[in-house]
Write a structure and sequence with these properties.
There is one protein chain. By secondary structure, the chain is α/β, with parallel strands linked by helices. Helix content is 41%, strand content 14%. The chain is built from 14 helices and seven strands. The chain has a seven-stranded mixed sheet with strand order 3-2-1-4-5-7-6, sandwiched between helices. Strand 2, helix 4 and strand 3 form a beta-alpha-beta unit. Helix 1 runs parallel beside helix 2. The longest helix is centred in the N-terminal third of the chain and has 22 residues. The mean pLDDT is 94. It binds S-adenosylmethionine.
Length: 364
């Protein structure tokens, strides 16, 4: 079987993955390029598993999506003198030759483009110094084949970098299928019993929680998954950022693609919802279990004073994979039912800004 995704047109799962990456890029770039003030004078985008740039039908892969989106900001890049470093790597020399020839049509003097053909771990080591520089913002896209490249050491190096968001791809069903195979388990320390007890559809959630567990308890870091079912198995993206605004933007992208659960290109919780269908017992539109659970736990946490102000509300929302719209709805309901006072709660990133006022939730 031909497993190389560039020898055939991208399938729907690959297209979904690229569309998440593309949408996130659209959200990420303006934060660094379209603001009045310039805090970061250098922007680095690393595509460590770049492929040749297109599939056999001419659909654009990650390198060309990056270039297309940057074109939108040429004026800002020029007027603010922002340095843009782009790094593309793939260990296939043939793919890199194709990419180089495609890139000739894109050449402009606004970006520094470096293209290499190295094994990932060498490529990563080679770029570490650039990624670690002050006053730079990094976006890392790690579209690996399989499961072996983003191991514990690489993950821990990435989360130590300042102003760095990353998105990596992983074949989570491989971890389930080969849970006892040393060639796979050598790269991840996930308990085989836990893998065994996790349903196939949920496996990417377990893999994400393994990576979450690698973050030191003293560190504020945000991680979110998106599961992708393809013909060949269950894959997923894992996003990470040290900044709540970064994770909010990623989650917005996910909820746009999966309006029911914000987390998968399939019915991950087996809700079997037909959009618009009315529940026979409640007479209301059917709702995903994930949303019901979030709303009920959020209400309890507020009423039990486990969440006491808007900053905590904002973080609770993001850490549970939701966005402020979901929480605002719950708050509105609690106010309407006279459970809490109508204080001006600021459930947004603004509550994280310097000198922001944190507002307490007052129970009635
Ligand atoms: C899933 S594809 C990437 C697709 C690409 N992002 C795109 O949009 O077209 C994975 C790529 O990683 C390359 N690759 C696999 N193992 C690698 C390694 N150890 N180091 C560097 N590249 C590798 C493969 O040649 C393949 O092109």
């Amino acid at each position: 079987m031909d497993r190389d995704l560039h020898n055939k047109p991208f399938d729907s799962g690959t297209k979904a993955k690229l569309s998440i990456f593309h949408d996130y890029l659209k959200e990420w770039l303006p934060v660094f390029l379209a603001k009045k003030e310039t805090y970061w004078h250098t922007i680095n985008i690393f595509d460590f598993f770049s492929g040749p740039g297109i599939d056999t039908n001419g659909n654009k892969g990650t390198p060309l999506l990056i270039l297309d989106e940057l074109e939108v900001y040429l004026k800002e890049i020029q007027s603010k003198n922002i340095i843009i470093n782009l790094y593309f790597n793939d260990y296939s020399a043939d793919k890199i030759e194709s990419l180089k020839s495609t890139l000739t049509t894109y050449e402009n003097s606004f970006f520094n483009i470096k293209v290499e053909s190295k094994d990932f771990k060498k490529a990563f080591k080679g770029q570490l110094q650039l990624m670690s520089k002050k006053d730079t913002a990094n976006l890392l896209f790690l579209d690996q084949t399989g499961v072996k490249q983003i191991d514990e050491n690489i993950f821990k190096s990435i989360i130590e970098l300042k102003t760095t968001d990353f998105l990596f791809f992983i074949s989570s069903s491989t971890i389930k299928r080969f849970k006892n195979h040393p060639a796979i388990s050598a790269y991840h320390n996930i308990n085989p019993d836990e893998i065994e007890n996790t349903e196939y559809d949920q496996i990417h959630r377990l893999v994400t929680s393994y990576y979450r567990g690698l973050i030191p308890k003293t560190k504020s870091y945000y991680i979110a998954p998106f599961s992708l079912k393809k013909k060949a198995g269950l894959y997923g993206l894992i996003f990470g950022s040290g900044n709540p605004f970064g994770i909010e933007k990623f989650l917005r992208t996910c909820w746009k693609i999966d309006p029911l659960r914000g987390e998968a290109n399939f019915d991950i919780d087996n809700d079997k919802i037909n959009p618009g269908q009315i529940d026979l017992f409640t007479g209301e539109a059917q709702r995903p279990k994930k949303i019901e659970k979030f709303e009920s736990e959020l209400k309890n946490n507020i009423l039990l004073k486990k969440i006491t102000n808007d900053k905590e509300l904002y973080l609770y929302t993001l850490n549970n994979g939701f966005i402020p719209t979901h929480t605002k709805k719950v708050i509105k309901e609690l106010i309407k039912n006279n459970k809490i006072k109508k204080n001006n709660l600021n459930i947004s990133y603004k509550v994280f800004k310097n000198n922001a006022i944190v507002t307490n939730i007052e129970l009635n």
